[in-house]
Amino acid sequence: MAERSTDEMKTQLAQANGLKQFLEENMDSFAESDFPNLLKDKLAEKKISKAQLAKASGMSDVYLYQLLSGRRSPSRNRLICICIGLSLTVDETQDLLFRAGTGPLYAKNKWDAIILYGISHRLDLFAINDLLFEENENTLI
Are 81 and 57 in contact (CB under 8 A)? Predict the structure, then answer.
């Protein structure tokens, strides 16, 4: 079966006679999150070590290893830190946030806009935190 778009699924959901039937019919279309494997794939793709990622994303080695083992799930802020630590593009960041089950960054939100600016200009985590602080916004870490 061909993958359904989000709009197609929303329409089908609105017209569904029952939730169970909708869920069964669309089981293969739901986004699944396997964050530990997703993160391992990104580490390999970007050719960055776990220690380098921990340092660049402002987290301890222990915390990162807990994420990689699946013993902990990161908050949205920590996910953003990981994206910055991996030097992901804006599109890659939005994709990782989506696949991890959190909301994307929105340019209409000041806090998100500052982060999007930092990512698109290849700033590191500490420079982005400085921008957030200068604008009286909560920092990532």
Answer: yes
Mapped onto helix, strand or coil, the DSSP state of residue 137 is coil
**What is the model's pLDDT at position 121?**
98
Q: How many angstroms separate the CA atoms of 43 and 20, rounded? A: 38
User: What is the average per-residue pLDDT within 93-104?
Assistant: 90
Q: Which of 114, 108, 111, 82 is nearest to 97 (CA)?
A: 82
Q: CA torsion, points 117, 76, 64, 39, in degrees to nearest 10?
A: -80
**pLDDT at position 49, please?**
95
| Cα radius of gyration (the chain) | 17
- DSSP string for residues in 9-78: HHHHHHH-S-HHHHHHHTGGGS----HHHHHHHHHHHHT--HHHHHHHTT--HHHHHHHHHTS----HHH
Which of 24-33, 65-74, 85-94, 95-104 is the most confident on average? Answer: 85-94
Q: Is the pTM of this model over 0.85?
A: no
